[in-house]
Design goal:
This protein is 22% helix and 19% strand. A hairpin with a 2-residue loop joins β5 and β6. The chain contains 8 helices and 15 strands. By secondary structure, it is of the alpha/beta class.
C-alpha cells in the first residue's frame, strides 16, 4: 500500500538517541543491554506457555550460493567423504548482512564514537571485541517470544519490498492475535519476505526491504522489548531518514542495547501460530560462543 506519512527528520532520530538511551541503566559495566529485562520469573512464565510440545525453527539454511544481497556466501567445503571412510566438512562465513540468520552483538554498531553504554569504539580491536561481544550471550536467550504477523493483520500474503511498518501496524497485529507485547519479550516481526521471494524471485534486499519505520523506536522502548527479530533486518529500506541507512540498527543497538536478530525465516512460525491459535510461545536463542565476536549465526526455536 502506498505510504503518505511524512518521514522523521535526522534531528528527531538524534533526539531518540538521547531520550531512549539505556546507558547506565544496568550499571557502567553492563554487557547485556535490554536482555536484562528477561528475569528468572519471566523465563518461568514463558515456560508455562508450553502445552502442545510443537517446535518450530526460525532460521534459514546457511546461504552458500551468491545472491544480489549475499556477495560473500557461506563457504562449505567437504574435508572427508566416502573416500576417507567418514564425513567431515568445513564452514566459513561472515554472519552479518542480508542473507544469514544471525544475531548482532552490541559491539556491532558504532554511533558518534561510542558503543552501547558509552564504551569507546577502540574496544573493538583487530583481535575482536573487548566489550559487548557475542560470547556474553553464552547462557542463551530464553523468554516469551511474540510474533506480530503484519501481512496477516493487513490481509495480504506479504509486504512489498521497501514498505514501512508503523506503530499502528504493530498494534493492529497485536489486536488480531489477542496478544500484547510486554516487558522482557522477544519480539519477532513477520513481513513475508521469503514468501515474496518465492513468488516474485530474488532482488537486492540491501536497497529495498520491508521493515520497521524509525517512528517505532519509542514504542519498542516503552513496551520493554528485550530483543527484536525480523525476516528482514528490522529496518525498512530505504530508511526514509535522510542521511541514515539503518536507523533502527543505530538506535536500537547503540542507544537502547537491543540485540537484533536478522534474516530469520518466520513463515513457518506464522503458520504454526495460526494453527495453534496463539502468537506467544517459549523462545530459545542459543548463539555460538564465539569469543570476542560481533555476531553469531543462530537458529531460534519456538516451543508451543
Amino acid at each position: 500500500m502506498p505510504e503518505t506519512r511524512a518521514p522523521l527528520s535526522a534531528a528527531e532520530i538524534q533526539a531518540f538517541q538521547r531520550d531512549l538511551s539505556n546507558w547506565g541503566r544496568w550499571g557502567e559495566r553492563d554487557q547485556l543491554g535490554a536482555l536484562n529485562l528477561i528475569t528468572p520469573a519471566k523465563r518461568v512464565a514463558a515456560a508455562a506457555l508450553v502445552r502442545s510440545g510443537r517446535t518450530v525453527s526460525c532460521a534459514r539454511p546457511l546461504p552458500t550460493e551468491p545472491m544480489p544481497e549475499n556477495p560473500s556466501p557461506v563457504v562449505h567445503l567437504m574435508t572427508a567423504t566416502a573416500t576417507e571412510g567418514f564425513g567431515g566438512d568445513y564452514f566459513a562465513m561472515a554472519p552479518h548482512g542480508f542473507a544469514t540468520s544471525h544475531i548482532d552483538a552490541l559491539c556491532h554498531i558504532f554511533n558518534d564514537g561510542k558503543l552501547y553504554n558509552g564504551y569507546a569504539t577502540d574496544r573493538v580491536t583487530a583481535h575482536g571485541a573487548l566489550e559487548l561481544a557475542i560470547h556474553e550471550l553464552k547462557d542463551g536467550i530464553v523468554s516469551r517470544g511474540v510474533l506480530l504477523d503484519v501481512p496477516r493483520a493487513r490481509g495480504v500474503a506479504h509486504l512489498e519490498p521497501g514498505e514501512p511498518i508503523f506503530v499502528d501496524d504493530l498494534e493492529r497485529a497485536e489486536a488480531e492475535a489477542s496478544v500484547r507485547v510486554e516487558e522482557g519479550d522477544v519480539l519477532l516481526v513477520h513481513t513475508g519476505r521469503w514468501a515474496y521471494r518465492d513468488l516474485r524471485g530474488g532482488w537486492d534486499a540491501r536497497t529495498r526491504l520491508a521493515g520497521l519505520d524509525a517512528s517505532c523506536l519509542p514504542w519498542l522502548r516503552e513496551r520493554g522489548v528485550a530483543a527484536l527479530g525480523s525476516d528482514g533486518v528490522s529496518d525498512v529500506l530505504p530508511s526514509r531518514i535522510e542521511g541514515m541507512w539503518l536507523p533502527i540498527h543505530t538506535v536500537a543497538i547503540a542507544t537502547m542495547g537491543l540485540h537484533l536478530l536478522d534474516n530469520l525465516d518466520l513463515g513457518p512460525l506464522a503458520r504454526a501460530c495460526a494453527e495453534e491459535r496463539r502468537w506467544a510461545f517459549l523462545l530459545t536463542v542459543a548463539p555460538l560462543v564465539l569469543q570476542r565476536g560481533t555476531a553469531s549465526p543462530v537458529n531460534p526455536i519456538a516451543l508451543f
